Amino acid sequence: IMANAQAEATKAANDAQLSDLQVQRAAQTNTVRAMSAYVIGFVVLVAGVLTILFAAETERQASALKSEFVANVSHELKTPVGGLRLLAEAVEEAHDDPRAVVRFAGRMRTEAERLGQLVQEIIDLSRLQSEQGQFAPVLIDLAKAANDALDRTRIAAESKDIDLISIIEPELAVYGDHELLVTAIGNLLRNAVNYSDSRTRVTLTTKVAGEFVEIAVSDNGLGIPLEDQERVFERFYRVDSARSRATGGTGLGLAIVKHISENHGGTVTVWSKPHYGSTFTIRLPNANPTEGARP
After folding, report:
1. Which pLDDT score, from 0 to 100, does residue 90 have?
2. At 263, phi and psi to the nearest 5?
3. How many other CB atoms are there within 10 angstroms of residue 13's CB atom?
4. 158-178 pLDDT, tens per residue?
5. For 140, phi and psi rounded to 5 degrees?
6. What average pLDDT score do residues 204-219 get?
7. Strand runs (DSSP E) across the chain, as ranges?
8. Which of 200, 209, 218 is nearest to 169 (CA)?
9. Contacts of 280 by beta carbon, 8 Å cutoff, 6+ apart
């Protein structure tokens, strides 16, 4: 009887310990669940706050970029507009001197052309950065686009006695917009001509590079310092402001090249060394990677 009683007591004690252990485990489980819910809720709250802050920061950045762009445009417009005003006053004062009038009229025409180019490039860049910059891609003959760009640059090159050399592979194709590609290549060629000395050469090359095609424009011009190379594709950035204005540059040509390249799924890069020249390279997806591949 005593043994049975002791066994029953031991069993009861064990059951009580087990019950206490179960209660403790249940309490621990509930605590873990509560803490997990708290952590999840906190993470969701933080994520929500970060999203709101990011949206606000993005809006502020967009607003700042817009303000900066407007300020830059206003500054750039002042130069040709101010020049036209001064030239108009000079024409009025020289109305009795036909030669002076002709000379001032020619300078007015130059400033008017620069103003027109600036306004057009501002419009082009704005379209490229907006939904209007989207286009329905079609198959583009890259050789034709390159040759069209060369034709648009020949007069400027001939005026400085610069040789335009072209090494263009036939039958290369990309998907995109023909006129935009001609504009991008033309901007690179025009920059190369403007920043090269007379009696030098500018070379345009197209070739296959794996699943991409490369369009490279090389010159033997002044070159670009290393610290300026990362910024040359920024809007209105000029390495040499005086020379840029003297050649009629607006500071938007390379920014337009960058956006056209990106809108075609590609990139544009620069290699340059002061006093040796520069090479700008556009890389675009090859429309015929298998057919165009080279060993």
Report:
1. 84
2. -65, -15
3. 10
4. 999 999 999 999 989 999 999
5. -115, 130
6. 96
7. 138-141, 163-168, 173-176, 201-209, 212-219, 267-273, 277-285
8. 209
9. 188, 191, 192, 216, 217, 254, 257, 268, 269, 270
